[in-house]
Amino acid sequence: MEAIRSIHRLLARSATRFRAALTVLLLIALLAGCGSPGPTAAVPSRTGTTDRLATPLPTAPPTITATPKVTASPAATPSPSVPPIAGAKQTACPGRSRTARRGAVTSGVSRNWAGYVLGATRGHVTCVEGTWTQPKISCPTTGRTSVAVWVGIDGSTAIGSIPDSSATLAQTGTFANCDSGKAQYGAWYEFLPDLRNIEPFQLAVAAGDKIWAQVRWLGKGEFIATLINLTQRVGATQRWNLKAAPLLTAEWIVEDPAASCSGSSASTCTFEALAHFATVAVNGAVTISGTRYRLSSAPFPYLRTAISRSGRTLATPSSLTSSGFKVTWKAS
């Protein structure tokens, strides 16, 4: 019996030593990485260091950052391209631009002109241009009425300081006619004395269209008349030779066209009834001996003329401003 109890005591001590040894081996295995790591075990790095599963340090911002999206303003939106003008080129009267103290303005009356005449008391007029909006006319149910708006070189009689330039007239402009209640609009040119009647340009013109017109002397008696409908982007030109042109006056005129004339003077003419056009605003420029002036700022004498017949005023021009002038219809 004593021998059996000795064996039991020996086995107990061996088991205790075995458990202790096993515990040591497990600890060694865990420390050496041979065990199965739990979900929070460290992960070895390639360098042998341990990356901790802690919150990483903030990463430095990249060198190039994304540009925030910028919404274009309406002003930066490209505008649609303006179509070219067919049939003519818009070229301003040449010369070095100058703003001068306006010359004296004399008022007068005419049987058929309302507007302004500028007299070149020194030098020569070589270009005149003007802009206006084609006026809409009101038509009576019966009869015929007419009105024309134009720019020109020469064609004026001597009035006050305005020299006589009546030997020739180069002009271009637009017209509006009423015939039996129907309005018609168009464009034209005329070179007097060679052409005794206006010649039509094959251009479409409608009430409200923006018009640009120019008469230019090219030298050696040659003129070119250009009219452009800026609204419809169409234009036309006509060249003519007037060798005897005095080149002494420029005109911006609203006219009551003549129905017929028995001579070269307006005093021999009968006129259409002046069409009811309300108002028309005219602006422009002129070149005199190489210097370009605005309509309202040339250092030369002006004639301001209204249409008056048989004691009745039919149309009157306003005073000159930096925007030109306006002609107002009064009666037919």
**What's the CATH H-level homologous superfamily of the domain at 98-329?**
Peptidase G1
- CATH structural class of the domain at 98-329: Mainly Beta
Tell me, briefly, the overall form: globular
Structural class: mainly beta
CATH architecture of the domain at 98-329: Sandwich
Q: Segments where pLDDT lies below 50 for 5+ residues?
A: 3-8, 24-78
Rg (CA only): 47 Å
The arrangement of helices and strands along the chain is HEEEEEEEEEEEEEEEEEEEEEE
Task: Give the integer mean of the pLDDT values.
Answer: 83
**Count of helix runs:** 1
Cα separation of the termini = 158 Å
What key phrases describe this protein's structure?
1 helix, 332 residues, 18-stranded mixed beta sheet, Jelly Rolls, 22 strands, two-stranded antiparallel sheet
Describe it.
This protein is mainly β. The chain has a domain at 98-329: Peptidase G1 (Jelly Rolls, Sandwich), CATH 2.60.120.700. 9% of the residues lie in helices and 42% in strands. It is built from 1 helix and 22 strands. The chain has one helix spanning 2-32; strands spanning 43-44, 50-51, 96-97, 105-110, 113-119, 125-133, 144-153, 169-179, 182-192, 199-201, 210-219, 222-229, 234-241, 249-255, 258-261, 269-271, 273-274, 279-288, 291-294, 302-309, 312-317, 325-329. The strands form 3 sheets. It has an 18-stranded mixed β-sheet that branches. A two-stranded antiparallel sheet has the order 1-2. The longest helix is centred in the first third of the chain and has 31 residues, at 2-32.
